[in-house]
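User: Can you write out an input/output pair for a complex, sequences first and structure second?

Assistant: Here is one pair. Inputs:
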Amino acid sequence: MPELPEVEVTRQGIAPHLINQTPVELIIRNRSLRWPIPDVAQNIIGQKIRAVYRRAKYLLVETQAGTTIIHLGMSGSLRVLPVNTPIEKHDHVDLVLDNKKLLRFNDPRRFGAWLWYELPMENHPLFSKLGPEPLTDSFNVEQFSTALIGKTKAIKLCLMDNHMVVGVGNIYANEALFKAKINPSAAAGQVDHARLGELVSAVKDILAKAITQGGTTLKDFTNAEGKPGYFAQKLHVYGRGNQTCDVCGHLLSEIKLGQRTTVFCGICQPIK
DNA sequence: ATTCGGCCCTGCGTGC
DNA sequence: TGCACGCAGGGCCGAA
């Protein structure tokens, strides 16, 4: 479900309801997510929430005693709901607050995560090797081209590799490469500097616009209030294999890269 | 060290 | 109507 824009839209939606609240109960109905939800997840109880922030696609609920780490995986979502809202299928976790609301985690495929960490987040093994945030100046063409030196694998796989830059999933990787006119299969280390500059700009532009639009709703993404996003109406290649290119009118090609569907225009994005 | 493929899981659309 | 199959917004892990 979520790439960075959807996670950020979720964060913006839930944060006002959580900040300065104190969890009174953590209800775990199914702890078998990507990793089992640990017993120490209960340590958030009684700890006032002082921030809700995001790193890569992780949502972080910070207290003085430690931080709850939430990842939505492919199909996860978070809603803020009144206590006593009836349970639905795949509602695995409720964080009950002292304001008569709860944060509810639903995840059909259970690729998501709910963890607890008491040290500074940069020490966490999941965070220690993450690349820069795409919407900050730490992601720039100098940094990116340096990271790609000598890489033989496809540029699209590098764009989706959290060591290079975080938060770019399959939808926005396809879209950014189209906008930058780079063939997704091109060897990453061979792409010229000017094209990489276009790519960096495209990533920033597309992610920022998607956040403004409330994210991309393909099937079922909704924000914390249950409303869908509208960015899907602006997608040029993702989900459009064998349709015509918006720019040149030729048929879009569809291939697999890293087992992920990849759509591009062979005319606008030549191999070169 | 890098790259690649498998895998975790449920649900939905397609085609027989 | 039912069933088998393939595919889906992510990312870890082990093999080569």
